[in-house]
Amino acid sequence: MTERQTTKITPVILCGGSGTRLWPLSRKSYPKQFVQLTGEQTLFQSCAARMQGDLFDRPLVLTNADFRFVVSEQLIEIGIDPGPVLIEPEGRNTAPAILAAALHLQASDPDAILLVAPSDHVVPDVAGFHDAVTEGLRAVREEGRLVTFGITPDRPETGYGYLELTQTPNGSGTAIPLACFVEKPDVETASQMLEKGNYLWNAGIFLFAAADIIAAFKKHAPALLDPVARSIDQAECDLGFLRLDPGTWEDVKDISIDYAVMEKATDLSVVPFSGGWSDLGSWEAVMREDTPDGNGSVTSGPVTSIDCYDSLLRSEAQDLELVGIGLENTLVVAMPDAVLVADMSRAQDVKKAVTALKAKGAKQAESFAMDHRPWGHFETLALSDRFQVKRIVVKPGAALSLQSHMHRSEHWIVVEGTARVTCDDKVSLVSENESVYIPLGAVHRMENPGKVPMVLIEVQTGAYLGEDDIVRYEDLYERKKHRDG
């Protein structure tokens, strides 16, 4: 048995998307892969969890600087030891990301095998998925094939691309050579393909040896090799993460793996999978993953539905009761700072709302009232021209940066736990029901020395209250150095 035959599969999780089609729950500042959309785990956690077992090594994650701590924390929450985390300076689509992962893994293991998966898909049948991966692994090891996974369609879907197979699947899950990729069809074409039986949905999940995919890039997309390789060679280690070099990454073309390599490759096989799958690419898709009531409607959160049919009603604010009366084929999603109401037939057009909101300068287009940080999170409770009130939660053992402000002073009231507060030369412990004043210009820091989350109310007053009014002197998360949020 060769070394390649004993090498475990490395899951490569692509985790940098913005998920605008599930606005207002999914936004650029905290996209859908980190949200509990369909169960107790986030989509990212579910993705990582289904690629565990004897077949698999530790995962490699590709993400951006904003999400690097979220990635590690969510893996640790479900008991998965985080493997390498590669930070892309900017999103350049899937081809450069996958090439970077392959080059990085091959450097330490020439026989590395990658299973590449988006972080925001739903695959309910984990055992069936493992069976499909095992079949794909045979084609990779014995035949040197590039493998993708095709989903058996159950409807004439127009929102997915398709894979045309050289023969009709016989239900065994055996890898079949690919005839060609098919772009998203219209309804009539999708119906015809469904009837023919040799077309599958393109899941965007791939399995291949690092050496084979790198060879495919050399043949079909050679212009990507040099800048991606240099970005790896000049990468910088940062608190356990690997930051790809931003200067060389600027020269990397923005292109998908399908366009760069897969549509040109002749050694590509497809493993059919019938165990259920969704990319949760619209609220309509989210609705299909839940169990409807007797009227065909799906509700989530504090919702009251009266005579509503074939509708999705979802409230993500615990103190906001959503009431629907006499609705039909309607989508309603309520957040503390935004509400979406649409005809269900227009679910794919939600991204148009994000574009319109960005054009008018609405912060809800990309940001939440709750803002996640490496040390915890905060949410704005009240905001006016010269004051702002926040609720701040700091994780056990975490600390905000040592910082000062040029335009505002702050008053902190601890409501849960204990804070260690630095204010210029003074360090003090502030317990529940106690407060401390931070004058304008004072060099200060807030830490949680305890074992439970620390919660405080912050009252800011001043002429300017923007988040960019921060001068950082020290930071556990090196945001001053890299200008991260």
Polypeptide structure, described:
- This protein has 485 residues and is α/β, with parallel strands linked by helices.
- The protein folds into three domains: 3-273, Spore Coat Polysaccharide Biosynthesis Protein SpsA, Chain A, CATH 3.90.550; 291-359, no CATH class; 370-476, Jelly Rolls.
- It is 24% helix and 31% strand.
- The chain has a six-stranded antiparallel sheet with strand order 18-19-20-27-22-25, with no helix packed on it.
- Strand 23 and strand 24 form a beta hairpin.
- It is globular and about 75 Å long.
- It starts with a helix and ends with a helix.
- The mean pLDDT is 93.
Helix content: 10-25%
Report how far the terminal alpha carbons are from each other: 49 Å
What fold name goes in the CATH topology slot of the largest domain? Spore Coat Polysaccharide Biosynthesis Protein SpsA, Chain A
Mean pLDDT: 93
Give the tally of structural domains: 3
Radius of gyration: 25 Å
Task: Name the features.
about 475 residues, alpha/beta, Spore Coat Polysaccharide Biosynthesis Protein SpsA, Chain A, Jelly Rolls, 3 domains, six-stranded antiparallel beta sheet, five-stranded mixed β-barrel, 13 helices, 28 strands, about 25% helix, about 30% strand, globular
Secondary structure topology:
Layout: H1 3-6, E1 9-14, H2 43-49, E2 60-64, H3 68-77, E3 85-88, H4 94-108, E4 113-118, H5 126-143, E5 146-151, E6 162-165, E7 176-182, H6 187-196, E8 199-209, H7 210-220, H8 225-233, E9 236-238, E10 241-243, H9 246-249, H10 257-262, E11 268-273, H11 283-288, E12 298-300, E13 303-306, E14 312-315, E15 322-325, E16 330-334, E17 339-343, H12 350-359, E18 370-373, E19 376-383, E20 387-394, E21 402-404, E22 408-416, E23 419-423, E24 426-430, E25 435-438, E26 444-447, E27 454-462, E28 471-474, H13 479-482
Parallel strand pairs: 1-2, 1-4, 2-3, 3-10, 5-11, 12-14, 13-15, 14-16
Antiparallel strand pairs: 4-8, 5-8, 6-7, 6-8, 7-11, 9-10, 16-17, 18-19, 19-20, 20-27, 21-28, 22-25, 22-27, 23-24, 23-26
